[in-house]
Amino acid sequence: xxxxxxxxxxxxxxxxxxxxxxxxxxxxxxxxxxxxxxxxxxxxxxxxxxxxxxxxxxxxxxxxxxxxxxxxxxxxxxxxxxxxxxxxxxxxxxxxxxxxxxxxxxxxxxxxxxxxxxxxxxxxxxxxxxxxxxxxxxxxxxxxxxxxxxxxxxxxxxxxxxxxxxxxxxxxxxxxxxxxxxxxxxxxxxxxxxxxxxxxxxxxxxxxxxxxxxxxxxxxxxxxxxxxxxxxxxxxxxxxxxxxxxxxxxxxxxxxxxxxxxxxxxxxxxxxxxxxxxxxxxxxxxxxxxxxxxxxxxxxxxxxxxxxxxxxxxxxxxxxxxxxxxxxxxxxxxxxxxxxxxxxxxxxxxxxxxxxxxxxxxxxxxxxxxxxxxxxxxxxxxxxxxxxxxxxxxxxxxxxxxxxxxxxxxxxxxxxxxxxxxxxxxxxxxxxxxxxxxxxxxxxxxxxxxxxxxxxxxxxxxxxxxxxxxxxxxxxxxxxxxxxxxxxxxxxxxxxxxxxxxxxxxxxxxxxxxxxxxxxxxxxxxxxxxxxxxxxxxxxxxxxxxxxxxxxxxxxxxxxxxxxxxxxxxxxxxxxxxxxxxxxxxxxxxxxxxxxxxxxxxxxxxxxxxxxxxxxxxxxxxxxxxxxxxxxxxxxxxxxxxxxxxxxxxxxxxxxxxxxxxxxxxxxxxxxxxxxxxxxxxxxxxxxxxxxxxxxxxxxxxxxxxxxxxxxxxxxxxxxxxxxxxxxxxxxxxxxxxxxxxxxxxxxxxxxxx
Length: 754
Fold this sequence. Notes:
The protein is an alpha+beta fold. Among the domains are: 53-62 and 383-629, Glutaredoxin (3-Layer(aba) Sandwich); 100-234; 236-370. It has 31 helices and 14 strands.
């Protein structure tokens, strides 16, 4: 997607269009007879306005990550926790004859207690699935009170293991709360009788000395009993139990005991939704400092997905609560500044930072975090690579080959795009001369850091920021991540789709996003991005072809597509089909439409689509869809660019508009020098190299000879596939050269301008 009103002010990154000049080589040639009168200078880079942003789709293949992401807006669970860590998960079990439901629903009193105690934990675990009359028979309040009282009596002599079936009683109560939450009408209400009984049961259990045993045998039952605290919404009553577990914990505890500690996360997190829990923390500030101490004392165990991180993050809820904010501020300040923002402690510090910014906004000075975005850029994105004057990559981790391949992919896409839209240069007042591509290592790192670094929503597959293109120094930026699920293949998710948005915004769509959205343009904006991306990469668009066979939409209906009235299938699959049909079947109409888009004549464009064209093409579009469904959609554009005619000037160094020279060569360390004499008013000059052997790098220097030590722009990818696009070059002589990183020969050099 192309752009949308800002979610926040993005961090300004210095563009760095012009790399530090290297030492100049010797032996520069004499200038042409007519000396250039001026030289190009880098454009000033000013402070941008808040960017217009819009997310791109998240891949369904994006892997889940066990590490926490407060910045990923997921609804906090309100229902009691399902299933058990000591029995098989309910989804994996079926109610079989070996676990007869009637054995629980048809008994009460002592018989019910005996049935629960004698059943296996895996059998009791299946009761989380009960519905209807079975749910009522097993879990009505009277049944729950009976089992809670039995737990009270049995817990008094708890031996530190499950030999007295305390685990089954706890798990039955957990299942009851879970089922009643979802099936209140069937089960009936729970009232004061059950509350009193459960409190008596939990009081007795936690008073038993053997609940302090540091063993897996105790931990298995203790873990379930900790979860029962939250299921019964007794979070406030048992803050002391949570404190005890956190105070006693060490990294040497066995796995089941660690699970018991981990389950306190749910008690704490969901406790903040209960007024009595908040009141308990107000009355006892040591609860918060106990959690803080738990984190600092066990910080050596932090690896991102550990119990310390997950429990520690819950401290953020202190500043999300008006009554506890003053209590929480110094604690969060300490932890955020104590531990690094990246590495193993990153999930903890970044999540706590999220709370300070989202729930205690405007206080970065107190927390000492106002400069965090600037700090994060070099820490998270150490790779800083300039493809050419128009394209820069900031990445978390990319090899030299991956950088070169990405640069080549994007640079070569320019010519492909321009052949499709047949533009005459950038639209008026568009200063987005360069794009910055930000590539995080995977979706998790994108989610963990991009929200803070660029002030964007991250529950998506990436974000394109166009900003205000009329502002000098505005930075267009695509914030992306590697498609980690495709490894070992390297791919930046949505790369070519988003680069098309950059090009489309610069060469086809006048003004900013709000201007372009005054009438429906999404069929074109997203359809073109899909069309160029799939065509350029030579990838068959299976999903779109499958949709063509359904014939869901008329072409005239697709002209009305907006982000608000359409789902992703209509926006992307059907946008692609509409754009492909129009480009192939009615190119003159596309030319007329783009003329209006480029002038900002949105109403004129709308009249063309809905009145001049209207429904005239609907029948033909329907016919074309049927053919397309049979994989006969027509010819796609090729990536091969037609060759320009040979340059005719006698001086082999001189180039002109739309001409080429073949067989260009130079030995290692030397140059092939060239120049053009441009008329006034040139909007865009493009120089490309291709073919041949060796490795030639391309340099441009405006009004003086271009060398590795004196240049305004360069393209230095591996091999000879280089492109430079210079916006608003000066009139008169301008100079470029090919420098031989490795001796080259047989290279074709092409120049064009408009």
